[in-house]
Amino acid sequence: MPIAGEWFTPTELSFNSIKARPETTWVHFSLSDGNGTTGQGEITDTQLDQSIAPIVARLANNLRGQKITSDSDVITINNLNVEQIETDIALATAVSGLRCAIADTLAQVLQLPLVDYLRELYDHDGKADRKVQLYSNINRALKPTFDGPSDRSPDGFAEMAQRAMEAGFTTAKCAPFDECQGPFSSTGLPREAEIGLDRIRAAKEVIGPDRTLLVDCHSRFDLDSALALEPELRAAGVGWFEEPVDPINDTADFRLIRDKAEMTMAGAEKGYGVGLFTKLMEDDVLDVVMPDVKFCGGPVEAYLIGRELEARWEGSVSMHCPSGPLSLLASAHATAAFGNKIPLEHAVYEADWRQEVLEPFEEIKDGYQTLPDGYGLGGRIDPVAVAMRGKQWTE
What we know:
This protein is of the alpha/beta class. The chain contains 13 helices and 15 strands. The protein has two domains: 12-112 and 389-393, Enolase-like, domain 1, CATH 3.30.390; 131-377, Enolase-like C-terminal domain (TIM Barrel).
């Protein structure tokens, strides 16, 4: 629902990327009216096998010269429907990025920070907190660097978890099962999972009993192996069991795992739209859904998911964000707007210069992110960071 008098007419589109690690390149775009109002979105495609930029360019071309009054105009003007977007993650990424950029511009037109724009759109009473609690995803920091391989031994996991705890985080997450990929040659707990469990135990020993370790399995297991793994994770003191299988594409198996598990089951990072996440909760597939601002429909849709699901299942929404600073900022606005019960994910220590990517600098201290004071997202990709560590182009 547009706010009266609010509109934006895009005319210009440009892309940029910044190389964070050999395996990670943050990709962004800017959508501008040519008169000083510019919105930005992140379309990093680490989970995909194609570039998202051409899809963004095709969709954005149909928006040029149009009077845009809502982020959902991306869908209506391009004659898309929710079913198309739900089943095509590349399209969902492009749509989510464009919806983010448009929400950014419309909040600027109204001279509101994005967090306030989201709440005003839907008559949300009260004032949102400007500080958002984060949890530390240590996995990206344990990937290879430009200087050589990282240490993915149990000691390496422990050292990174220690670093996160010393920085003020009270929760860490890791993805320790590199060697696993179902189906497996034997039933029960796969031999390949043992080193992953050693990594978990080492990290948990450092974190201690009063702080939380979450485990992401990246859908590397199957029904039998996931059922065998769950009691091992529980015995190790793990806080949640994330995506042993894909809860969207393997819903029946995931529901069976959840029915038998005594742990909190989390996932659905690749889902799009409030309808899909609502159905996953109504069908008892998940305890915690994990919408990602890059895939779920952008910050407006993320806010709606959080607001609507938290009202029915308190503590059920934890935004997924192992991404660059722009996605984290958009996620923080959405998380603050719906009033999160679970901390927001942050990929720590992926690049020591990360805070310099945004202008003003990303502000994270003692496990919290402070939202900037500006309108819209309040932060922009710094062209100096692009010039130093990336590239810019048009499609």
